[in-house]
Amino acid sequence: MTLWFNPMDLSGKLKRSCEDSLHKAKMAWKAGDSDTAAGHFEAASKSMFKYAEYATSRSMEYARKRKAIEYRDFAKRLRDTAAEQAKGGKLPPPPSTSVDEDRTQEAGAGETDRSISETVSQLIHTSTLTWDDIGGLDETKRDIKYTLGLSLAKPPAEVKITTFRNILFYGPPGTGKTLLAAATSNSLKVTTEGQALFFNVKVSSVLSKYFGESSKIISEIYGAARDNSPSVVFLDEFESLTTSRDSGEQSGAERRILSTILAEMDGLSEKGRSDIFVLTIAATNRPWDIDAAVMSRFEKQILIPLPDPESRSAILRIQLERKGYNVAGDVLEQLIEITDGYSGREIERLCKQATSQMLGELNADLPEILDSGLKATQNYQVKIRALVAEDFERAATMIKPVTSPADMQRYLDWSPEAD
Ligand SMILES: Nc1ncnc2c1ncn2[C@@H]1O[C@H](COP(=O)(O)OP(=O)(O)OP(=O)(O)O)[C@@H](O)[C@H]1O
Ligand SMILES: [Mg+2]
Measured in Å, how far apart are the chain's first and last C-alpha atoms? Predict the structure, then answer.
């Protein structure tokens, strides 16, 4: 069969288009225009994904895909922090924008294995976070506790109770998805009085750092999770596995990691072992990017929404009173109003901003005191006062919510079946 085009030409075109997008992205970044920069990084990512298909070796393909993922992640970061940047904050430093770095070194097998087990051990956490550290979300917490309880309790003889092993949390950024996963793993530790492990896997970073080895890493993680049952495997940014939909075909490596995760989620490797309990919790801000077949593997898909007034009140107490700050009488009520549309993370930032303004005001003489010596500084008593509405109003001009009502509506309208 003859091709009507010369693939090398297309490859050159893709490379130029990628370089062009990167150049524009860099200019926009220099000008502090995060939105435009994000758009160009996204375009560069798409071209780079396509360019990767013309690679002449596996390592070259992986190197290019890593870059494509890096640009995509960076664009996301720019968008996630756009609101702060608009207020004069600094843009994060961009990834290298040189397209010509195909010289990759093939690691020796021994080195690769070592780096896999190192990677896996870096992903293991034990968590001290408790359910009480999470404000609101009472129904979700109860749901998870019930699931854990049913999975760990003694079933009646001859009865096989099948419980949930795969849960997906979806919703806007900063609403407590990671907190819930951490509390879940911590409560397994309490339940069994042993060591519960929390495997915190950011899918996009496993993909970008260990592209060719990703599926090995996933198998290794599940292996370790089973060895340490009961445990939780938390797959953050789960949509990274399937977003390649809009950037053309999935690559072989992406397909491999996806099928590995799906096989592990199906519990193939623990068949017949009812004593092993590994709960997979996946989280995403973009559920609509996950394809239906993958979605159906999750027995439960739970929306973690922006907090309602009651939850905001609970989060505010956690962020202020639990940290020892006093809030004047009716201020909390006003704060609940002010924070309408804020995520838990934004409420936390708002509180931090307000408290640090207050501290800065009352302790403005600290730099001079430091000049007068270490002793004087150590003897200095940091001054505080109760926080007033004005503190928060001022802070609210700097910390704005990133999730618009329309964004939130998109989550509410989306349902797993509708996709
Ligand atoms: N319900 C909550 N109660 C108390 N603090 C919260 C809550 N939700 C968010 N926070 C605060 O915001 C921070 C971020 O929350 P978390 O990491 O769980 O968000 P997330 O939903 O995983 O966000 P992303 O989608 O961006 O990963 C937490 O460390 C915590 O300080
Ligand atoms: Mg998270």
Answer: 38
Where are the alpha helices (H) located in 31-97, listed in sequence order? 34-52, 58-80, 82-86
Going by C-alpha positions, the residue among 294, 321, 298, 317 that lies closest to residue 307 is 317
373's CB contacts (< 8 A; 6+ apart) are none
**Measured from the CA of 136, which atom of ligand 1 is nearest?**
1
Mutate to test the pocket of ligand 1, among 345, 349, 355 (most ligand atoms within 8 A of CB): 345
pLDDT digit string (tens) for 286-314? 999 887 878 888 988 999 999 999 999 99
Closest CA to 262 of 200, 227, 215, 196: 215
Task: Please give the Cα distance from 149 to 167 (Å, whole number).
Answer: 15
CA distances from 205 to 67, 209, 211, 241, 396 (A): 12, 6, 9, 11, 32
Give me ligand 2 centre to Cα 415, in Å. 20
Atom number of ligand 1 nearest to Cα 169:
21
- H helix or E strand, kind and range, residue 354: helix 344-362
The string of DSSP letters for 144-210 reads HHHHHHHHHSPPPTT-------EEEEE-STTSSHHHHHHHHHHHHHHHHSS--EEEEEEHHHHHHHS
Ligand 1 proximal residues by C-beta, below 6 Å: 134-137, 173-179, 283, 285, 315, 318, 344-345, 348
Nearest to 361 by CA among 388, 378, 383: 383
Q: What is the per-residue pLDDT across 67-116, written as a single tens digit (0 to 9) for each?
A: 887 888 888 888 887 777 777 677 777 777 777 654 443 344 455 666 77
Residues 52 and 61 sit within 8 Å (Cβ to Cβ): yes
174-196, pLDDT tens digit by residue?
Answer: 999 999 998 988 888 655 555 56
Residue 387 Cα, ligand 2 centroid: separation in angstroms?
29
Domains of the chain: 8-86 (1.20.58), 109-303 (3.40.50.300), 309-402 (1.10.8.60)
Q: How far is CA 349 from CA 75, 310, 320, in A?
A: 22, 19, 11
